[in-house]
Amino acid sequence: MRNLGIIVLSIILLASLGSCTKEENWAFKTDQLYQKNKKSVTIKQGVWGTVTERTGDWMPDIYQTAKQAPIKCTIRFYEPVTFDDFQREGISIYNITDVPTKLIAETTSNKNGFFQMKLEPGEYSIFVVYKGEIYACGFDGVGNIGKFSISEKNKTEYNFVVNNAAD
């Protein structure tokens, strides 16, 4: 009976190890993930990239629990958005519930966080919808949020990090 208990415990331990692979945590090696996803690009013109989520303690000490993993989510592309666009009553850049410019397109990322979207030449802002929340990533010195450009017959890489759960 004791041997049966050890066998069952060993099976449970092995099963839990198998479900948590090293590839689930891409912290400090996202360049490898980006290169892996680059091989999946099939569009001739538009935007592609990887969406990841950072969690845990990213401070450099012995208790560091940093994790970064690809996520499945919705990626939305809007006409360019600025901080000034959010300066209306009831709209806050810190708690986005609605983007105040026209939605152009949307897609979803796969289990590797990879997404791609064919877009016409022009300028766009990118947002991610994850766990019911809308996230922006990056801004420039003149107030544009998540802005990128597409030129004729070119692909733009845009890697998006959701980091609201990182310390």
Characterization of the model:
There is one protein chain. With 167 residues, the protein is α+β, with helices and mostly antiparallel strands. It has one domain (23-166): Immunoglobulins (Immunoglobulin-like, Sandwich), CATH 2.60.40. The protein has two helices and twelve strands. It has helices at 2-18, 30-38; strands at 46-56, 67-70, 74-78, 81-82, 103-108, 114-118, 122-130, 133-136, 144-145, 147-150, 155-157, 160-166. Strands 1, 2, 6, 11 and 12 form a five-stranded mixed sheet that branches. Strands 3, 5, 7, 8 and 10 form a five-stranded antiparallel sheet that branches. The protein has a two-stranded antiparallel ribbon with strand order 4-9. Strand 7 and strand 8 form a beta hairpin. It is globular, with a radius of gyration of 20 Å. The model is unreliable at 2-23 (pLDDT under 50).
